[in-house]
Every structure is written in C-alpha cells, then in structure tokens.
Queue: 2 jobs
Job 1
Amino acid sequence: EVARALRGFVADKLDMAEAGMQERDLDEGLRKAGVSDEVVQEVLACLAHCDLQRFAPAKEGAGEEARFLKKVSGAMTELNRRMGR
C-alpha cells in the first residue's frame, strides 16, 4: 500500500498514468521536473524497500516500520514542496 500511495502521488505530480510506470519513468520525470538528485534517490529507495518487503519480507518491528513511514512521508512532503501543484 505504501508503494502504491507513493507511486500514485508521484504520478499525479508528474501528470502521468500510474499504470505501467517504471522506475526509469519516475527517475526521468522527477529529474525533468527539477527535483534534486537527493530527493529522487530517496523516492527510489523507498520504492525499492517496498519491493523488497513485498517479495522477501523481513520481520520488522513497529519502530522500524514507523521510521520507514516517516521516511516516505518526508519524501512526499519534499516532492510536494519542490513541485507544488
């Protein structure tokens, strides 16, 4: 659900369809929109973590989950700040 929310958020910001959007599309779209390398890498790292958890879930404690959700929230806030709309 976190990956879906983040992908949907980015797709909306980039005015792209979420369906079929690949990592390369996200990377290129965010960079063209003027988003810094640091923020792009943070978004991609969050999505990679989600994929890892989906296919090879590790036992994470509530504290680790909360830190990850805070990281995703921070990435979304930074995207919103830099991209507006």
Note: The radius of gyration is 13 Å.
Job 2
Amino acid sequence: KKSEIEQGKAIVSDLGGPKVAVFNVDGVYHVLSNECGHQGGPLGEGKLEGFSVVCPWHQWKFDVTTGNCLSVGGSSVRRYEVAAAGEELYVRV
C-alpha cells in the first residue's frame, strides 16, 4: 500500500521470488531489485537522495527511475514497472 512508504523513504517487499525495494520520491513510486549490482547490498536500506539511492554497503549510487548505476558506468540493477490503483501498488514481475 502507498501509505506504507513514507515520502523520501523505501520499503523492501518480497514478490514471491525477487525481493524489491519500493521508493517514494515526491509521491511517485519506483521499484528496483533490492540487491546492489556490486556485492548484493540491500538497496532498500540505502539513503534516498532525490532520484538516487546510495547502497549502504559500499556507497554505489543508483538512479531509481532507470536502475542505472551513477557510480560505475555500464552497471545497473533491474527496474520494475509499478502502477497505482487507489491505495494499492502493483509491480510487474
């Protein structure tokens, strides 16, 4: 539910397989794989800075809108499509 994710924060959700990080950036929701492409750090526990999240393990930075790594060119994490219907969020896996 949208109400579970504070603005400027993230939650981790298990989608029955992949764990994802769901980010709330100014009321717009973005979903990435929860595992950093570097060494699998938990992106959902990272610091959200505008449209980027900083991995708490080694400070790699990822754009939450694309999944692209802003620290190391050519690296990225999977981005998932997300849609809202009322209070519910739906993620395409």
Note: The chain has no helices and nine strands.
